[in-house]
Amino acid sequence: MELTSTPHTAPRDPQQAPPTRWGRSARLGGGSGRLVAVSILMGVAGASILAAGATALAQATSDGLSTTWALLFPLVFFVLAAPVLAMGAWALLVDRSSVRGATVRPEDSIENRWYDRAAQATFHVMLPVVGLGAAVASITRWRADAGLLLMGVAVLMVAVFAIAYAVARRADA
């Protein structure tokens, strides 16, 4: 039995089914259809559970949740969470060698190096920013809403990461 490979794809046994766009799962057996169906079902189930939990938490912590909001909140939460959870289930179940065009070792890719550089730069920028912010806040006794403050830190981290990734990408171009 001879294995064949192309530069960017995994070696493949000629007796196996050819790679497909959505891949297959060795854990589930069957083809792409079964993998996609199970992934969607897992996403829907997980989003339903999370939406119910988030709704219960929102109702327990709010003083007066309007009827419209009580009906709209779980629906919006479900619609936003279901695709993400379905994609996560697919990523956990798929056999990478069965996906057409999948990189053999993604950890060795140039994009992974850009990501590593951006993550390091983000850490090195955010550490002094958060430290100086904490020092200024404690010296001046400045008080802020924790939720807004953490959201601001998260937005700053995303912005720093995006800029660092673009710089790393441009440096290798």
Write up what this structure looks like.
The chain is mainly alpha-helical and 173 residues long. It has helices at 32-61, 67-93, 110-140, 146-171. It is flat.
Summarize the structure.
The chain is mainly α and 173 residues long. The protein is 66% helix and 0% strand. Residues 1-6 have low confidence and may be disordered.
Task: Supply the key terms.
single chain; 173 residues; mainly alpha; 4 helices; flat
How much of the sequence lies in strands comes to: under 5%
Largest sheet: none
pLDDT < 50 runs, ≥5 residues:
1-6
Provide the succession of SSEs: HHHH
Give me the number of helical elements.
Answer: 4
Summing up helix and strand content along with how strands pair, one would put the structural category as mainly alpha
What gross morphology would you assign?
A: flat
C-alpha-based Rg, rounded: 23 Å
Number of strands: 0
- How far is the first residue's CA from the last residue's CA? 40 Å
Mean pLDDT: 85
Percent helix range: 55-70%
